[in-house]
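pinned: reference chain
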Amino acid sequence: MKSFCRRGLAPLLPSLLVALAACQRPEEVPRPADLLPKERMVAVLADLQQLEAQVENSRLQPDSARSLFLAEQKKSFWQRQVTDSTLQRSYRYYGSHGKDLTEIYQAVIDTLKARQKKFDPLPVGPPAPQHH
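pinned: its structure tokens
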């Protein structure tokens, strides 16, 4: 996850994904019956971004990395009680509404930054004065 945020990709991700969705979307995507609420989309997408960064940093061979990613993705979907097809339909729907997708990815970035803060070591400062 650190490499994802440090590479400076985080600020570009929403724009790139909106542009990609805009290129592929039909005029109007109907609202799927199983549409994931934005909050759940944020959680699932943040999990996937974090998983991708962890697998990328594992330095596994490509085939092993892909197998690990798919296994962990399946586990994550099970834990979040979401299916791949539900995520795809929801993503397609939100992608046809650029503002919604931009908001979702801004929240994903904020979520990843908050998760990163949990794991970053505390800043080291001068030692506190000791009282005897």
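why pinned: Confidence is low (pLDDT under 50) at residues 1-7. The two ends are 43 Å apart (CA to CA).
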